[in-house]
Request: fold
Amino acid sequence: FDKNDLGVKSTPYQDPTERVWWRPFGVAAAVSVLSLFAFLALLVSPFLLAFATVRHFYFATASFKRQPSTCRIAVIGGGWNGLQIVRRLQERGVEDITCYEKGDDVGGTWHPDKRYANLKLHSPAWSVQFKDFLYGRSFEERSSRIPGKHLHDYMRSFADNFDLRKYFVLNSTVVQIESDSSKRKAVLQVASTIDGSVVQQTEPFDMVIFASLAGKPVIPIIGNESEFGGETLHASALSQDKWKQLIEENKKVVVVGGSKSSCDTVLSFVDYVPDENIIWLYRRPYHFMKYEDFCHNRDFIHKIGGLLHLLCFSLAALAPALAWYEILMLQTNNIINFIYQ
Reply:
C-alpha cells in the first residue's frame, strides 16, 4: 500500500552510524537549561513541602458533612481503578457500595477475555502496585515488568485480601443513568451481559463513580475494503492463538496508532517476523518513547525536550507528590513542538 494514502509523512531512513552524537554547543546548552530547571525545582521545593504538610493535616482533621456510613455509592467498572476506588471507600467507612462489572471477574483490561497477546506492564511493578498490598516478596520481583496473567492474579488477590468481592455485581453492564438533581440521587438501569434483555432498575444512589477507562474499540475505515483481502483486528482481539497464526503464516502486519496497545503489539512481533513484515503508523509516539527526542534526534529543541522529560521523570520518581511536574512539562513540550513545527 501507499503510506501517503493514509496521510502519513515518511521520514527518510538515516543510518545510525551517520548520526552526529556529539555537538558541543547543543549539549552545553541542554545541560545549562537542565541545571536551571533543577535549580528552580530546588528553590520551590520548601514551598511544595509546606503545602503538602498543610494539606495533609487539613484533610486529616477535616470533618464530614455527612457520615460515610450513611452514603450509598455505585462504582461502574471493576478494573484497576474500580478496585482501588472500592478499597478507598471501604477505608473511609462507606458500607453500602455496589460495583458493576460486565465481566465474570475483576480485572478490567487485564481480564483474560480482554487481554491481548503478550500484554505486559511498561514499567516496574513497584511503580503501579497497590499502596497497601505490595506485589511479590522481593525487590527483584517488584522491579520486573509483569506479564498480564500475573498482574490479573495480583488484582484478584488484592480483592480477596480486603474482602472486596462482596461489593461486586459481575456480568452486569450499566446501560443508563437517570439523575435527579433536586434530590441529589441517581438511578441506574443495569442489564445482564449473559442475557441482555434483562434490565433492572436499582434503588437510588447518592453518588455514581465511573471507573471504566476501557473504551469501545475504534477501527479506521479502509477504502475499497473488498479489494484489501486482508483482515482487520483491534488490538483487544489479538489473542495468543491469532498472534501465533500470523507469525506462522508469515503475514504482513500494519499496526495503526501510537497507544500502549499498539506499542505492545509491535514489540510482540519484532523478534519473530522479518522487518518488512511489520509496519507501524502513528501520529504521535507512545509516551514512553519520548526518550527518542533526546537520544535519536539531532535537533537542539528535541535535546531540550528530552532532558526536560528525564528531569520530570526523576522528580516524579523521587517524590510522587511532584508528579504534577511531569504533567506541566508534557503540556509545555507539546506547545514547544507545535511552535517548532
About this structure: DSSP finds ten helices and nine strands in the chain. The CA atoms of residues 41 and 90 lie 37 Å apart. The mean pLDDT is 78. The two ends are 27 Å apart (CA to CA).
